[in-house]
Task: inverse folding
């Protein structure tokens, strides 16, 4: 009886591993190539997983992408929260730390890839209402985290208060996402540097 | 002799018309669906043009996209120049007018489509060095036009001078492109409103 339980647990773990592996590999490929250019066969070959197994976990490519977005978001939101809610830094310092980390990561990747959410937003918002809805949930969640941090900075007198925290968070995310897009196209990191030096260290600073 | 010349001229005009029609239809479809999701067959069917004729004008889909980018850029740059070099408005007013027009167009399109250059930049910068190079030429051209306008505003004391015109133009374009992307995903126009109200009417204003 115990052995059977153990066997079942190990089988469940293996299944869970396959699912996670499919999500991780799909996430990497989709980050680099976008949704339309990602072939399921490429992912199956990379992992040596049969097609039937893929469709056991995911109904369709679209549903697979939804799960990839959620998986990416789980990891990303945890990282983002750790930085923008860190009580050991002032709110402006937190925003700068987050922007610096985004900048350094993009620079290390030779201005390739960028952010999965930004890439899929641009590519798929008009193509799939299912993906757009999922992406908008992630964007709204990030906007809330940034707004909370900015509001704290406004209360401390560290960030300008002429505009609401929600409005500033909106502009902050627009400018950061756009800077990543520009850096990817121009293959130079300056748009991120300008975002940090001008927007964070000067314009929104009280 | 005169008749032959006329016939030849009319044939050349018809050929030119077909080429332009292929560019215009391709531009519309690519703006809505992106590069990967655009099928050449769809364009040929829409125009009732045979495949051979398409390949008479364009070597490949990639080359076709390059020509679409150039065609789009020709029209767009003319419009952009008219606004950002208009001597009848102050530089800041010109930037606001341009941003307002972008905002209203996106709003009229129910926050769909956006800008072909931004869309293809996000989708294709890591996929095709040929397209990335073409897109980066367009971005650089726009950055120059914005920088010239901002520099004029700085000289007039209308725009802040703590940062160079080129750096501010970089941030201006990042924030505008990102706002368009956010608006497309959230299907609400506020990111554009926030960009105009906060960035133009407040933060960069001297």
Result:
């Amino acid at each position: 009886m115990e052995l059977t339980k153990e066997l079942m647990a190990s089988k469940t773990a293996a299944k869970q591993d396959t699912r996670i592996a499919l999500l991780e590999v799909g996430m990497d490929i989709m980050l680099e190539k976008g949704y339309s250019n990602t072939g399921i066969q490429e992912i199956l070959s990379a992992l040596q997983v049969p097609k039937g197994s893929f469709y056991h976990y995911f109904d369709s490519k679209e549903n697979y992408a939804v799960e990839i977005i959620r998986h990416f978001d789980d990891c990303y939101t945890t990282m983002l929260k750790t930085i923008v809610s860190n009580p050991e830094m002032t709110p402006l310092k937190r925003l700068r730390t987050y922007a610096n980390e985004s900048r350094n990561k993009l620079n290390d990747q030779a201005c390739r890839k960028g952010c999965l959410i930004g890439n899929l937003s641009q590519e798929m918002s008009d193509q799939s209402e299912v993906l757009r809805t999922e992406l908008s949930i992630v964007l709204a969640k990030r906007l809330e985290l940034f707004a909370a941090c900015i509001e704290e900075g406004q209360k401390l007198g560290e960030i300008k208060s002429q505009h609401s925290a929600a409005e500033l968070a909106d502009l902050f995310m627009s400018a950061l996402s756009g800077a990543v897009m520009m850096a990817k196209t121009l293959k130079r990191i300056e748009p991120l540097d300008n975002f940090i030096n001008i927007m964070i260290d000067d314009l929104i600073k009280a």
